[in-house]
């Protein structure tokens, strides 16, 4: 764990930034927290609303077991305290998109207690400093609906599709000290949620969003007054909020003003935060235990099932890739950052090992290099991701096998790969149809090499005079004469013999 050296240089000296995040993560489930209504994103307004969600008289909430299970699994993934006894509370406030006049949440007795997440501060350098960010709690609550202000010139409409959607509110401790730390925390938390399968992490769809709490202080002094910027929906915006809000607060304090505890909104077009309302304290919400819901009591069998269902998590997977598969720290970190990437890679090496008759550790290095350089490069160029990749892991494994057995050289493999991207055909089919096999025919290679040597007598003399760097020139010219189909190893051996 390292201490951040990030400081804001004010006119009167240095200031330290204190950041805490409250991340709202929509739980992956087909139904809402207390009703059976659907939760599909993008549905027509008010088509996913039950009588419970609309707060019709006499409707009683019934907890969704899967939502509770996913919250517990998330807590276990961050090594948090799982509270066997927890309770739902009513948070009372009146707003047009909240039909009940209250939100069912957990204030006093959350389902998950303290935990932690370790983040790497420079994701491009896996050997860089790490920091442990404390988690204060995870509680389960229902989402509110949504007001729509752009559907009518003088009226606002209400869409209750989100009303009652199950959320985990993951509350960090105020342990972050820079925009970079806040960004690294959100990325790592999103990665864990996706591995666990408890949230899809799609911030652009609103299924994961952060309330960003920022304050500043002189280094070593007590915490200052914080502001809370609501519903920030990207990692980049979280970092921008921390930077803007911290600098704004320093300017206010250094000009003799005071920071007001308030709720703010972020405007990404102007890259600024604006005041929304003064911050309410807990007593303003008049919390009390929900009388319609019994406390949650978790038994040993339920907890055991939750723990047994957890997948291999990113930190453990990264270490296994380094130790068991022999990958570099950088490759292992990139491959495990997202669950989808790790799954694609593991299918690739499993298929590669099967086709080549080798162990996964024997094929892992070549597979990882190809995935991270060739495939990722092509997908970026095409504006696609692994989910929409024109090349499947099995097709990639076949291509790698043709390189491994000498059928294709590196340059031929690149040609075949480009055709695969365009046509979706397999590497084997393309090699046969296009005649792209690598040749080890020594007679043909010797003839091509002899022609290159004869045409470059001056360079031959320089090479034999000690300018050994010219050897690469002869290799390149011979490969060119062979149309890129010569086996580079054979070319090297023949030229060494012929050049003396």
TrEMBL record:
Provide one Gene Ontology biological process annotation: glutaminyl-tRNAGln biosynthesis via transamidation
Q: Which SUPFAM superfamilies match?
A: GatB/YqeY motif, Glutamine synthetase/guanido kinase
Q: InterPro entries given for it?
A: Asn/Gln-tRNA_amidoTrfase_suB/E, Asn/Gln-tRNA_Trfase_suB/E_cat, Asn/Gln_amidotransferase, Asn/Gln_tRNA_amidoTrase-B-like, GatB, GatB_C_1, GatB_Yqey_C_2, Gln-tRNA_amidoTrfase_suB_CS
Keywords on record = ATP-binding, Ligase, Nucleotide-binding, Protein biosynthesis, Transferase
The lineage's top-level taxon is Bacteria
Q: Entry's Gene3D superfamilies?
A: 1.10.10.410, GatB domain, N-terminal subdomain
Q: Which residues form the Asn/Gln amidotransferase domain?
A: 343-499
Instruction: Answer whether the UniProt record assigns the keyword Transferase to this protein.
Output: yes
Q: Which PROSITE patterns match?
A: GATB
EC number, as in UniProt: 6.3.5.-
Cell cycle keyword on record? no
Question: What is stated as this protein's family in its record?
Answer: Belongs to the GatB/GatE family. GatB subfamily.
Q: What is this protein called?
A: Aspartyl/glutamyl-tRNA(Asn/Gln) amidotransferase subunit B
Which lineage? Bacteria, Pseudomonadati, Pseudomonadota, Alphaproteobacteria, Sphingomonadales
Gene that produces this protein:
gatB
């Amino acid at each position: 764990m390292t201490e951040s050296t990030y400081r804001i240089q004010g006119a009167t000296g240095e200031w330290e930034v204190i950041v805490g995040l409250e991340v709202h993560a929509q739980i992956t489930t087909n139904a809402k927290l207390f009703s059976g209504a659907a939760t599909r994103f993008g549905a027509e307004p008010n088509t996913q609303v039950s009588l419970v969600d609309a707060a019709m008289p006499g409707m009683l909430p019934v907890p969704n077991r899967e939502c509770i299970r996913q919250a517990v699994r998330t807590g276990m993934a961050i090594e948090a305290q799982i509270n066997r006894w927890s309770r739902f509370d009513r948070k009372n406030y009146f707003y047009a998109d909240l039909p009940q006049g209250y939100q069912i949440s957990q204030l006093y007795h959350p389902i998950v207690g303290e935990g932690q997440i370790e983040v790497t501060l420079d994701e491009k350098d896996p050997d860089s400093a790490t920091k442990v960010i404390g988690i204060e709690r995870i509680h389960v609550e229902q989402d509110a609906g949504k007001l729509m202000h752009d559907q009518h010139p003088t009226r606002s409409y209400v869409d209750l599709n989100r009303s009652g959607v199950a959320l985990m509110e993951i509350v960090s401790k105020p342990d972050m000290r820079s925009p970079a730390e806040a960004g690294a925390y959100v990325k790592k938390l999103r990665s864990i949620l996706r591995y666990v399968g408890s949230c899809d992490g799609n911030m652009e769809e609103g299924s994961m969003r952060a309330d960003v709490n920022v304050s500043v202080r002189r280094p070593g002094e007590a915490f200052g007054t914080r502001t809370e910027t609501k519903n920030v929906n990207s990692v980049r915006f979280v970092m921008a909020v921390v930077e803007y809000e911290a600098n704004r607060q320093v300017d206010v304090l250094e000009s003799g003003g005071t920071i007001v505890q308030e709720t703010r909104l972020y405007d990404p077009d102007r890259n600024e935060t604006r005041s929304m309302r003064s911050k309410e304290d807990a007593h303003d919400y008049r919390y009390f235990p929900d009388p319609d819901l019994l406390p949650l009591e978790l038994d040993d069998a339920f907890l055991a099932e939750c723990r047994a269902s957890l997948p291999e998590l990113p930190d453990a997977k990264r270490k296994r890739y380094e130790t068991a598969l022999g990958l570099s720290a950088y490759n292992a970190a990139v491959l495990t950052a997202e669950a989808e990437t790790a799954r694609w890679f593991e299918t690739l090496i499993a298929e590669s090992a099967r086709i080549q008759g080798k162990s996964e550790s024997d094929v892992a290095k070549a597979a990882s290099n190809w995935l991270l350089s060739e495939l990722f490069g092509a997908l970026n160029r095409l504006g696609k991701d692994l989910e929409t990749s024109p090349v499947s892991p099995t097709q990639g494994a076949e291509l790698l096998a043709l390189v491994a057995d000498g059928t294709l050289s590196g340059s031929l493999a690149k040609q075949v790969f480009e055709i695969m991207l365009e046509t979706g055909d397999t590497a084997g089919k393309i090699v046969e149809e296009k005649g792209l096999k690598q040749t080890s025919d020594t007679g043909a290679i010797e003839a091509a090499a002899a022609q290159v040597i004869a045409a470059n007598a001056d360079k031959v003399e320089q090479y034999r005079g000690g300018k050994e760097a010219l050897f690469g020139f002869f290799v390149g010219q011979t490969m060119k004469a062979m149309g890129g189909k010569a086996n580079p190893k054979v070319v090297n051996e023949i030229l060494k013999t012929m050049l003396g």
